[in-house]
Amino acid sequence: MCAAIDLSRGAAAIALMIDNARALITTISIFCLHFVFHYFLIRFLMESENKYKTGGGNSCSVHGCSNNRKKITLWKKSMCELHGEMHDHCPCLIPYRLHVMPSKELIRLEWIKSLNRKDLPKNVYVCSEHFIDGKPTDRNPSPKLKMGYENKTTPGRRKILKHQLSVKKEKLETGDSDSDMEITELDTTLESEPGASTPYEKLPEAICSFNVIEASSTVSTQYLESDFLPQKDHTYGKEWTDFQTKSSQTNIVLTEEKGVQSKSDGATMSAAQNLKTDNDALLYTGVTKEVFFTLVKCFTPFNTFSFQLEVADQLLLVLMRLKLNLIFDDLCRRFGISSGLACKIFNSWIPVLADKLKSLIVWLPREVIRDCCPESFRENYPRTTCIIDCAETFIQRPTNLRSRGETYSNYKSHNTAKYLVGISPHGQIMFISKAFGGRASDKFIVEKSGFMNYLLPGDEIMADRGFTIDDLLFPLRVKLNIPAFTKKQTPVKCGRCDNHKKDCQSTDTC
């Protein structure tokens, strides 16, 4: 009996020890799991903090540049003020992109030379702001802009040719005074009489009778100055004689006396000379002479640029570019300046003109529109307030595929910027929207541009068939007028009968 009790007690003690061991093992495993979890959590947080540090392959390696992937990520998660949506789904272009160093040895050496750093990171990235073309290209494969240091360029030495050295030595040996004396003596001998004795009697006889014909001579022989000039390969390489210059001057005087206006090759274009009438001003600028010089007078105080041209000529260049769509190479030849200066003048004046003249684009009151409405509108559309249409401007094809798709216009078959323009019935521009991608529809631009904020109940809008905006205008109690575009076309006939569609009596669809 006692032995059985002892065995039961021993078994209970062993079971208790096993339970304690299990509890201890469970506690240790839970502790280990907590330790491992906190270890990986702390490591993840440390890696996320150090993820965008310099030299880790996620930031620009150029000295002084702070562009990295973190800024791009935060930009994508931010809200676009222009389009009212996240930048990740917005048609706006990304601020910059990071480009990795190429593996080709020659281009890699160019990158290292351009970066000019002793401690290059393991993974070298450079943002697109440091490339001339916005990215590495075959023409400009290495970064060259905003490198954080100044390139010290030393001018090369001037090359001196051997014959120049020999001429200098001869001048030093003989002296300039001797050469001047020889020239004066030669001139006096040429002007002296033929029979006089001179120290230059060894000269050819032709020089003594240069360009002179004796009356008693029986043979008509005459020496020309071109016979004694150095022979050249082309006719245009011959030097001009005094006789030729005098004859050309007399020809110019004769043409001026006859009243013929002839411009020299170096004549340049200017507002004072070329804008003499309203027709000239309308041809070059699109405005009258009075309006143009009023603009010149108004914008003279805003001329903060250091260009050599006058303000009138600068504005003439800008308006000719806008009116006639002339290229800068043509404008530089017209104004006698370089192509780069013409481009700089245009790019400098456009923001100033836009900032000062945007206040002229105003939405006219309804009474003013009614008073200035043409007779054709008064008969057919008397309540028309505005005529709208979208215009497109060609742009360079973006490198980003998403932006390229959003700016591609199927109507123009090109990447374009699209904007809405509204004019009054008498032709005054009253509204211009901000630019959208060429892929945007007319309805989307009308809805997002803020055009409908100017409309009042009872107004009527005129547009073409592409503006399906009836559902947008109906809550505002605004009517959309779409005029007929088949005025001069032949009416469409029915497919089942010989009548026109409007006179068709068939119940089935034609």
From TrEMBL:
Pfam families: DDE_Tnp_4 (PF13359), HTH_Tnp_4 (PF13613), THAP (PF05485). Residues 388-477 form the DDE Tnp4 domain. The keyword NADP does not apply. The keyword Transmembrane applies. Residues 60-138 form the THAP-type domain. The chain crosses the membrane at residues 23-42. Residues 309-358 form the Transposase Helix-turn-helix domain. Its cofactor is a divalent metal cation. Keywords: DNA-binding, Membrane, Metal-binding, Transmembrane, Transmembrane helix, Zinc, Zinc-finger. One of its GO terms (molecular function) is DNA binding. It comes from the Eukaryota. This is THAP-type domain-containing protein. It comes from Mytilus galloprovincialis (Mediterranean mussel).
